[in-house]
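Hey L., structure's done. Input below.
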Amino acid sequence: METLHTHYGAIPHVGVVERYADGGVMSCTPGGEVLLQTACGALTPQFTTDDLRRRTVQAISFHPTGNLRALPLERPTCVATPAGEIMAELVTFHPDGSLCRVFPLNGKLSGMWTQEDEGRLAQPVRALTPLGSIEKRLIGLYFNPAGKLLSLTLWPGETLDVPTPQGTLAARVGVAFRPDGTLRSLEPAKPQPVATQAGRVMAYDLDAIGICGDANSLEFSADGTVTRVRTNLSRVVAEGTEGDRLVFEPELRESLCGDGDREITPLQMEFDAAGARLRTKINGDWTALPAARWRLRAEPFVAQFATAFQRLSCSC
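Output:
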């Protein structure tokens, strides 16, 4: 077994060592137990496997600087973070070596190991956040190089009450912050009314995917106004100064199941001092509506109401 020498200590490795063009190490697979000295304490990389959750040894990866990028851990380990000590199975780092993300669990989902299996291992995590101390099941936490918490990602099914400029709102999936601790965005856990330039909109994205809490469908500016929102339950009527009229509302698309059913897609809105942008398709073109030219009015959208809350079996 060969040994690789790094900033963090010598690593016995197996297999091919991936390298950058200049010869620097990109990744390697540990072949035995070793203790690496990192910015958040002495940590042991994963070097063994099991039959279900971790059937292969995940590689350690490095930035071109030579600093650690991602470090899968051999066992749940208490990691020192700016949010407090957290039991983790995976940690990642910024190029300067500072802590980037912490993941309490790191099991690999497969036909043999499902999200429900992994969820049974998820324990509440106590963390100090801009919202105060919380104790929730978390997928991960994200810090900037200065150690400020930028986002937290909630475990599926977990919710968190968040004080916002629009009152306390229930969040799922994730909550994101600015470096100064002010709220940047959250994913509404249920339809909740928020005030926008178009009037009161029912903020809710049925298709929100709980992979990462860095960017969410309800976003606030630094002064607390809504700058982005998705909705399955509101439409917007735009009336122009020349008498023209446009209507934007959630659309129905063919179900991903391919069985002839249809499902609703959210109306997406963005606002700034110049006006608004709206689109009705997830990756469609935006329609810009300058404030000097258009007056917007939000209204309830009730067509296909039942569809809006029907989760099809093959949907995300």
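The helical segments are 115-119, 305-308. The CA atoms of residues 199 and 298 lie 5 Å apart.

-- N.
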